[in-house]
């Protein structure tokens, strides 16, 4: 894989940390690849103030998790709830993710869905 936003986020992840004190937490795994992501959110007045992730997995999974938490900060919870899988895949602006890797790319987005379910 050539250098792209997934590679650079994998190499230098944004907000990769354990955050048990976070307001909302969601976890997702991909059995196909062994990817696992925990995603943590804090909100204030309906806006995501902090987003963090931790986990293990392949480059696509971890790079996309970093891109997702970076995107989430400052967004309204309503806007985040309306995100779709294609929206999440578009965060990898300069990478066309092959269909067989989309499961890996969406583990963090699934963890986000779990976090939002815990919030409702
Ligand atoms: Zn994977």
Topology:
Blueprint: H1 5-11, E1 24-30, E2 35-44, E3 47-56, H2 59-72, H3 77-81, H4 85-90, H5 102-105, H6 107-119
Antiparallel strand pairs: 1-2, 2-3
Structure notes:
With 120 residues, the protein is an alpha+beta fold. Helix content is 41%, strand content 22%. The chain has one domain: Sufe protein. Chain: A, CATH 3.90.1010.10. The chain has helices spanning 5-11, 59-72, 77-81, 85-90, 102-105, 107-119; strands at 24-30, 35-44, 47-56. Helix 1 (5-11) crosses helix 2 (59-72). The longest helix is centred in the middle third of the chain and has 14 residues, at 59-72. The radius of gyration is 13 Å and the shape is globular. It starts with a helix and ends with a helix. The model has no long low-confidence stretch (mean pLDDT 94). Zinc ion binds at residues 30, 33, 35, 57-58, 60-61, 104.
């Amino acid at each position: 894989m050539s250098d792209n936003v997934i590679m650079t986020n994998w190499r230098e992840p944004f907000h990769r940390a354990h955050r048990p004190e976070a307001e909302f937490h969601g976890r997702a795994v991909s059995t196909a690849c062994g990817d696992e992501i925990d995603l943590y959110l804090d909100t204030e007045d309906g806006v995501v103030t902090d987003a963090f992730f931790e986990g293990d997995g392949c480059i696509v999974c971890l790079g996309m998790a970093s891109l997702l938490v970076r995107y989430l900060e400052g967004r309204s919870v309503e806007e985040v709830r309306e995100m779709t899988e294609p929206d999440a895949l578009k965060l990898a602006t300069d990478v066309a993710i092959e269909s067989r890797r989309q499961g890996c790319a969406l583990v963090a987005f699934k963890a986000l869905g779990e976090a939002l379910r815990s919030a409702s």
